[in-house]
Structures are given as structure tokens and as C-alpha cells.
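Entry, Tuesday afternoon. Goal for today is a structural model of the target with zinc ion bound, before we commit to ordering more compound. Inputs were pasted exactly as handed over by J.K., no edits. I checked the ligand SMILES twice against the vendor sheet because last time a stereocentre got dropped in transcription.
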Amino acid sequence: MKTKLTFIFIIIGFIVNAQSPQVQELGNLYGAGKYDQVINKVNEYLKTEPDKVEYKLILGRALADIGNYNEAIPHLQFAVDNDNDNSWIKAWGLGYLGTCYYMLSDFEKSESALKSCINVNATKNATNFSARRVGIFGYDSCYNSWTIKESKNIRFHFQNMSDYEIQQYMESRENAFEEINTFFESSLPKKIDFFVWNSRDDAKQIVLRDLGFAEPSCCIIHSYFQQSRGHELTHVLSHYTSGISSKTRFINEGTAVCFDLSNQNRLKKVKSWIRTNDEKIEIKEIWKNGRDYPEEILYPLAGLFVEELIEKYGKEKYLELFKNQTYENAQVVYGLDFFLFIKEFEEKINV
Ligand SMILES: [Zn+2]
């Protein structure tokens, strides 16, 4: 959702501020997520117009979007320093600089860039982009009283917990990280910043959504203190398996539930929901239209499905599916036998 909105913002930015067909073309490619093509083309254009700030901005953004933060920074900085009109170019440059520095764990520069973007106040979208990051990256003044503690893989931020609770919490999440990652074997670009809230209401005011959630592309988790050990960690760790081209709610949430380390009886939950709601569940339909189903059924059902899929066909095939999580790709990955697997699964739950 976030990425789609960002695409729309930049497209709108380019339409409103269109200066040349080249800039429009780059904006279209960027909006379609074709970052490699953007980088190739803009490097070509920069040979004849090396100081064009629009080119420098889009190059910096595309590099940041593919995770080349160090390489992105000088281009973004150039756009910021040379946009004398304090326009949308400077604003987006600062917003993206704030993200790059965050990913490089240079929190001071990150905070300063995001707050400068807000002060420039050039476009509502860039301001909102940065204001949201000030909230989720931990720069709002509400975090001043929080306790920060680091373990091997995680930088924890605690709203209000005793030293003993903090120690227990850190140990259990660090163990969960290791346990889950024996499956995914991911390397993360930075430590996970893990915010642990005691108040859901306070969180909603600062991060503007309900707990808990992960922002895998930024290695961030915001969690209520009583959530499962593994769900949000799985969202982050699974995101860094190789070559993901498309996610679906059914597989992505199913994976997070499957590895939540909660030991819940999901079959019982699924059957009870089906009985209470007097509805039959068709896997193909819930897979394709996952957004139309409430968490109460989608989460345990998808979690159970993923668990049985891995049990039957193994890890390698599952990671193959995880790259492109569509129903169609599952048919390719699992072959003809998959139809039977789904039929048996549906018969088991719909009783
Ligand atoms: Zn989730």
C-alpha cells in the first residue's frame, strides 16, 4: 500500500511539474517500479545534462528503492542543495535522504533530513511522507522517555517496562529471531528497530495505525507488548528472502502466522469460525481475494495452509512460491498434485 501511494505521489509530482519528455518518461518508469531501467536511462541523460536536479532526484530515489543507500545519498544531496526554489524536488530529496540515513543507522542525519523536509513544506505528499517516518522511525518527542536496548540482531525501544520485563522480552525475541531465521536464512540490511508499546492508544496517535505491524523494507516493527513472539519478526525476515516480485495477503500473512511461535490450534479456530458463520471456504477464492476476508478467519486459515504446505512439499518449493505468491504461481511450483492437496484441505476444514 505504502509503495503504491509513493508511486502515485511521484507520478503526480512529475505530471504537475513536467518539464521535459525525458522527465515524464522517467516518472512513468519509476511509477511502474522499473528501477533498473530508470537508473540506466537517467545515467544516459546525465551525460548531457549533469546538473539537472530532476535527474539527480529520480536517480537517488531509484537507487534508494533498490537498497543502494550509500550510492543514492550524493545524488539526493545534490538535488537538495541545488533546488533553489525549495520546491517538491528538495522536499522529496530530503524525505529520501532521511530514509537512506536511517537504513545506514545514522539516526541523527536521518532525523534532521526528515524534519527539514517537513519545514520546507513544499508539497503535502512529501510532508506527509516525512511526518509518518518521524513517527515510525522513533523521532517524535514522545520517544524521549523510552528505554533503548540493543541485542545482537535487534535494537529495542520500550515504552514502559521494568528492567526484568525488558530482559525477558529481549531474550525471547532474540531467540525467536534466530529460530525463525533457521528457515528463511535472510541477511538483513540493518538491525531491526523493534518498538514495544504498552498503550495502543498512544501508538495510534504517533504511528497513525493500529498495532502491531511491520515495515519490512525499513526493518521496523511496532508491537503491542503482548503480541506473539514471531509474527512481525517473520514479516521482516521473510521479506529478505531473494527475488520477491509479488506478495499476496493470503501467503504473506499465512507465513507470519505459521511462524508466530504461538502453538495455537489453528484447525480448531478455522472450524469454529466456519461453523459459527455457516460458510464454506474455497481456498482459490480466499487466496485471490484475501483483502475481502476478516483477520479472524484469514489469519488462522492461511497459517494452517502454509504450515501443511511446508510439511508436505518442503522448504525449497515454499521459498519458490514466496517469491511470487499468486495462486497461478503455486500451480507452477507444485504441479498437478496441488489440485488434490487443496481439495483434501478444503474437505478437512469445511465440516
Ligand atoms: Zn501480519
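Residues 80 and 90 are 4 Å apart (CA to CA).
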